[in-house]
Specification:
This protein starts with a helix and ends in a 14-residue tail after the last strand. Helix content is 47%, strand content 9%. It has 318 residues and is of the alpha/beta class.
Length: 318
């Protein structure tokens, strides 16, 4: 291939690229125009909305405070422990208060609410959350112990804290639930859906979950917004604590009503079980077998299981 041919080819490619690039302003104009349409979603305005990346950063910082020494590269001992918490909690407060402020301001502007002093609300909510962190640490310690006691495969507490998806999902849930209880918008759901994307465990921040809860394996677990779970409950993979399917009209009526089941203390729910409905109560100390479908209450101290299916063996089958 001679030099002239190569030069001509390059010139043709440049012209082709320029021809396509000249269409970009038209595309940009159409996209700008689409932001004024009601059938498209955007957040275009002088005030930024909360950042998903910053909220994920908040989760990582919360882990470093709730489990000190586990998720950092530096050594933590009695000498630098106070300094460590001082640095971490201060940075955590600043980023959390900023993101809460943005979320509150966004809600106020969206719904044309009177001024609620969003920055003060953000800082107050963040410091109130900080006051709850020692309590969260104590609550999560019970979840760690429940995982160790409920899983013979666990060799240590360290293994559970570092690697169990069920504990990660519960940890993020407890952080998000605390913010949800404080009336913080948007952030709690982003947090639990981030955890969902990593673990396959979907826990709504509005659910109420007691102490010493263990989610074993976890993939496919769903815990709906109005679910109530007692103490020392154990869930296995694929468990759904959900709502019955309803029409669009019914959804609006039931939006703030209880739609998900109540699980009382010391219940075990095995893999693949589906429990639906706001009036459904699983009584204390009951055992729910795998793959069952329940839409009515179960008395305490009851075992529910499917009848054993008939297996067919054919000799010599390939």
């Amino acid at each position: 291939m001679d030099a002239k041919y190569k030069a001509d080819q390059c010139t043709a490619e440049v012209e082709t690229t320029n021809r396509f690039r000249k269409e970009i302003p038209e595309i940009v104009g159409r996209l700008v125009f689409s932001c004024g349409r009601e059938d498209c979603f955007d957040h275009v305005g002088p005030e930024p909305i909360s950042s998903r990346e910053s909220i994920i950063d908040i989760i990582q910082r919360a882990l470093r405070i709730l489990y000190p020494g586990y998720f950092v590269r530096t050594r933590i001992d009695e000498v630098n422990l106070e300094y460590y918490f001082g640095q971490e909690v201060t940075a955590f407060f600043e980023i959390l208060s900023e993101q809460i402020t943005l979320a509150v301001r966004h809600e106020c502007l969206r719904y044309s609410q009177p001024c609620t002093h969003c920055q003060e609300r953000g800082e107050e909510a963040a410091i109130n959350f900080g006051h709850e962190m020692p309590n969260l640490r104590a609550l999560l310690a019970k979840d760690v112990r429940a995982a160790y006691e409920g899983d013979p495969a666990a060799m240590s507490y360290d293994e559970i804290i570092f690697s169990y998806p069920g504990l990660f999902a519960i940890t993020v849930y407890r952080v998000a639930h605390q913010l949800h209880e404080q009336g913080v918008p948007l952030l709690p759901r982003i947090m639990t859906e981030y955890s969902h994307s990593l673990t396959g465990i979907d826990i709504h921040p509005g659910a109420h979950i007691g102490e010493s809860v263990f989610i074993d394996h976890g993939t496919g677990v769903v815990v709906g917004a109005t679910t109530e779970i007692g103490n020392r409950v154990r869930l296995y993979q694929g468990v759904t604590l959900g709502a019955l399917s309803i029409s669009k009209e019914e959804a609006e009526v039931l939006r703030n009503k209880k739609r998900h089941p109540t699980i009382e203390d010391d219940v075990i729910i095995y893999a693949g079980a589906t429990i639906l409905g706001g009036d459904t109560v699983i009584g204390a100390r009951s055992v729910i077998g795998g793959n069952v479908w329940i839409t009515e209450s179960v008395p305490p101290d009851t075992t529910v299981f499917l009848k054993k299916p008939e297996l067919v063996f054919k000799k010599g089958a390939k």
